[in-house]
Specification:
CATH architecture of the largest domain: 3-Layer(aba) Sandwich
Structural class: alpha/beta
Number of domains: 2
Bound molecules: NADP nicotinamide-adenine-dinucleotide phosphate
Order of helices and strands: HEHEHEHEHEHEEHEHHHHH
Radius of gyration: 22 Å
CATH topology of the largest domain: Rossmann fold
Distance between the termini: 22 Å
Number of strands: 8
CATH class of the largest domain: Alpha Beta
Largest sheet: 8 strands, mixed
Strand content: 5-15%
CATH superfamily of the largest domain: NAD(P)-binding Rossmann-like Domain
Helix content: 40-55%
Strand order of the largest sheet: 3-2-1-4-5-6-7-8
Shape: elongated
């Protein structure tokens, strides 16, 4: 993993050592709200007080802001500039196509200083562009998925940065930093996989419900158990490839083996998933 290009003694870091840590948010969208929920819960789980962490929110998104105010005491500001005045560490949650306009607004009002530390959640926008747009602030790229609010997710990071780790790690199970930006960009497709797997579960659920005598809730329980079992096996055997675990279950001559054969191979479902990933990755780069 790359070493941080930011000293851990930055103004922002010193501030984060003294309660309350103030985290600004520019763009209180769906993903930003999910991450804040996870962060607030994670900090409580780590034994920190609710008052150790303060969220400072940009305007717009009334419903989300009020919800975060009510749940976690988040402060809603009248302008984006006010958010930057209140907090040196700032999560940027606007959509990629909204980034340039936001950066222009902050530049024109000279809202950012070199002590600002921006954590930008946007696919397909390079760090070089972000640094140029949001200069003189320092910028890192982060990503997670909407399921982050459940507290089991990973947060990906480019480049490695101790301050971001320190600040956001209570929200997730793991922070994974990448040395190469192309790898970080591709890693975002893992977040998409999450939704595809859910859609796949739906297809399986639909099928099981066609079987006379299996109810919807029973089918759902059966499938959830299988997913938990698969996860448990992968966690129990971290050095064994999942394909090998599958083969150990699907020994020759079993029903499992017959299914594995049909789903694998050049025309199978697994290859189709790889093709989808290939196609999307080429669009991201
Ligand atoms: N949602 C997902 O499933 C998901 C999953 C993984 C990654 N992502 C990524 O996460 C990022 C955010 O996605 P999202 O789904 O959270 O988007 P979103 O719900 O649309 O949130 C973005 C919010 O930013 C606000 N905004 C835009 N420009 C602003 C400005 N200049 N000042 C203040 N607020 C501003 C928008 O307000 P208005 O509504 O008033 O325009 C919007 O509510 C994107 O890069 C997306 O690709 C999303």
């Amino acid at each position: 993993m790359a070493s941080s290009s930011y000293p851990s003694t930055s103004t922002c870091h010193r501030e984060s050592r003294q309660p309350p840590t103030r985290l600004g948010v520019l763009g209180v969208g769906e993903l930003a709200e999910s991450l804040l929920v996870a962060l607030a819960r994670g900090c409580l789980r780590d034994g920190r007080s609710r008052h150790d962490l303060e969220f400072h929110l940009s305007p717009r998104n009334d419903v989300r802001s009020h919800r975060l105010g009510w749940r976690f005491g988040a402060v809603r500001h009248a302008s984006n500039v006010a958010v930057c005045e209140a907090s040196l560490c700032v999560l940027v949650g606007v959509r990629p196509q909204q980034l340039e306009a936001l950066a222009m607004e902050l530049r024109e009002s000279r809202a950012l200083s070199k002590d600002h530390h921006l954590m930008v959640m946007a696919a397909g926008v390079s760090l070089a562009n972000l640094q140029r747009w949001f200069a003189p602030a320092r910028v890192v790229r982060v990503m997670t998925g909407l399921a982050v609010s459940e507290g089991q997710s990973a947060l990906t990071l480019y480049p490695e940065d101790p301050l971001t780790r320190d600040l956001l790690s209570p929200a997730v199970r793991q922070v994974i930093a990448f040395e190469e930006e192309a790898a970080f960009e591709a890693s975002m497709l893992a977040v998409c996989v999450n939704a595809w797997q859910l859609a796949q579960q739906q297809a399986l659920l639909d099928w099981f419900q066609t079987v006379p005598g299996i109810t919807g809730p029973q089918a759902r329980q059966l499938l959830m158990t299988q997913m938990r079992d698969a996860l448990a096996l992968m966690e129990a055997h971290p050095d064994t490839p999942p394909g090998e675990l599958a083969s150990r279950i699907g020994t020759p001559g079993t029903w499992t083996a017959r299914g594995l054969e049909q789903l694998g191979g050049k025309d199978g479902a697994h290859h189709r998933w790889q093709q989808v990933l290939d196609g999307l990755r080429s669009e991201l780069n």
